[in-house]
Amino acid sequence: MPPSKGEQTRATILDAGLALASKLGLEGLTIGTLADATGLSKSGLFAHFGSREDLQLAVLEHAAQRYVQRVFMPAVTIPRGLPRLRALFERWLEWSVESGLPGGCIMISAAAEYDDRPGPIRDAVIAYQRQGSAVSEKAVRLAVEEGHLRPDTDPEQIAFELLGIILANHNHRRLLGDKEARKRALTAFDELVARHAPALAAKKPRLRAVKR
Hints:
This protein is mostly helical. The protein has a domain at 60-195: Tetracycline Repressor, domain 2 (Orthogonal Bundle), CATH 1.10.357.10. 68% of the residues lie in helices and 0% in strands.
């Protein structure tokens, strides 16, 4: 069933809110700033979002849905195991910087904004990031099941290190303008995987002929 006119309008508003929040941060996103950006009335926006906090939470959810569509869904079509883990990482790598938003990934900026500010928005940011970690951990477990990674591989540790690579890439590409950042991130991924690759089967020693 195609979306209704009201659903289309809401999606358009959320697109604008997401772009605005990526530039100004979630704290800079208000009913007023969104009204100015969209040309809609404040009363019209209040009809969609009852409060500023409701708007901010809706924009976060909208960002999460975009991530699922652009990163997760394409990755799960790749064969399970290391190919899927690599596809997930590469798409995540690009999303973190080139998500179609002027300020990059809003989840990264929101984590910095709300890391020490209790409340519903911080709770939502934590929930989305934990969901992301769970996706990475599952991809690692599948790679272990497929024999692409060692049985003693710790999925939580791998997910932790992958996030570290993503954050370093985001910082170096967006803040420092490092043109080699993506290459370095992919190298870091390859080295991480290599450290957990199954050991090659030991070669049997060749028996020498006994001279008589």
